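Why does this matter for the project? Reviewers at the last site visit asked to see concrete outputs rather than summary tables. In response, this paragraph embeds two records directly. Each consists of the residue sequence and, immediately after it, the corresponding structure tokens. Nothing has been edited or filtered.
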Amino acid sequence: MATYAVAYASALRAASEAAAGQNYPPGALYMVATPIGNLADITLRALHVLQLADSIACEDTRHSQALLRAYGIDKSPAQLLALHQHNEAQAAQAVIERLRRGERVAYASDAGTPAISDPGARLVAAVRQEGLTVIPLPGASSVTTALSVAGIWGEGAQHGEFVFAGFLASKSSERTSAVEALRSEPRAVVMLEAPHRIEALATALATLGARPVTVGRELTKQFEEIATVGAADLPAWLAQDANRLRGEFVLVLHPAQTAAQAGPDSRVLKLLLAELPLKTAVKLAAEITGEARNTLYELALSLKKS
């Protein structure tokens, strides 16, 4: 632990050296991304702002205090303000009052980037409505972490398109309806789930058959586990090891296979090419069919040659 303390203290010094040159205006709200599990995933800029902040609004003051202490950042209880899903509207007004006094206020949720299935969005909206400044500090996010290891490549996904569904409904009927709505979704879908509900979600997703699902459990932590299985096999995969029911989950439902992935329909494109320049024909064909413009362009070149 002493070794870690020395390392974290060095990181704090490095943060000041690396980030201090930028302007950090007073009277601004700083949205600070924090680690999703591994304490070392904090950014140098986040550390600098947490040091600099006159006060810190926290989803859980105890959780944030532990992070601050690990890096040797000392804040008094008066500098910490609880702002969570149950009091966000009221606590936002307290933050606004501090901003009007010229304070730099940082906001940190328990893990990851604030306002993504975490409190923070109402706070930002309220601060912006008052004409005050909000500054984002990028960093850890379970959403992008899971997508980066899902290995998705296909129609829609090749352009980085995805849907963030967050936590699906807890009621069985509503959850089933939500999953059914995802059956034909051509983009990747990112979902979050808690350990006590993961089996229910897996059962609902199993109705999607062979559609791949990448499961990230305890991402960035010591017992991190990542696997890609068919949706129908997800309940069995969880049942293989009791440990797989522990920890926080991020799931990436891979894009639904579409007819376009088997090869675009050339009929519309042929008709347009007979009357219009190639680029115009491709643009209109993409708008009409919903197929990827790059794919249609390659097909158009092939049709022209033939």
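We now turn to the second protein, recorded in exactly the same manner.
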Amino acid sequence: MSAPTTPHRIVFANEKGGTGKSTTAVHIAIALAYQGHRVAAIDLDPRQRTFHRYLENRTETMKRREIDLPTVRFEVFRGETAEELDALVAELGADVDFLIFDTPGRDDPLARHAATSADTLVTPLNDSFVDFDLIGQVDAETFKVRRLSFYAELIWETRKKRAMATIRDQRREMDWVVVRNRTQHVEARNMRRLDNALTELSRRVGFRVAQGLSERVIYRELFPSGLTLLDKGHLGELGTSHLVARQELRQLVAGLNLPQPLSRTGAGMTAPQLTAEEA
């Protein structure tokens, strides 16, 4: 009998709401399920529980339409302590390839605890200096980065501690990915300024930048059904913008550079099929 493996932990976290964090997390979770992986997920926001509700809606749609879609095991965490969270993590992560956490859009001790254990930490940001301020402050005249913001300092310290654990406990290094969500065609000079600021800060604190999901109405329209852009054949007729959105999602999945453990299910789509799927 082979030894049990530890699931790759993906934590979606920042301290600001309205960045498309839960929508991104759901689509990544379902993309991994389409690749044939076993995926579990924990919603750490028992008040809003957007991630949990999205997957509840998916389950209800499958029952109502009598269809079978790739999905994930999911729970909303209602406990109060890190020990209780660790117990739930041990239970859900016992036989999965990936364990996903969706955290509240605010400073939260349990979100911090989850972040310290992340193998891949995903921080979605709206494509503006308002959201950039979460991780770094810029000069009003030059737009050069003046200092790290509190959240970036927190993750920097977390990664340093994690680096020590990586050597001592043979754990994976944490990969921090800042995802630029809700991008729009805005004034080119502002885009260059933001690009430069992200590049400068990424070199200082060691995160990678990935292109995320654009601002599109379809994401809000899909929520009540729990369907995703990958559920071809169940979405009706899609327009050109929806097909472009699906390609954005494929690029984001590839940009996260997640490991590809051998599926335990022997079912589902493989990674190449998902990437090459034609809408």
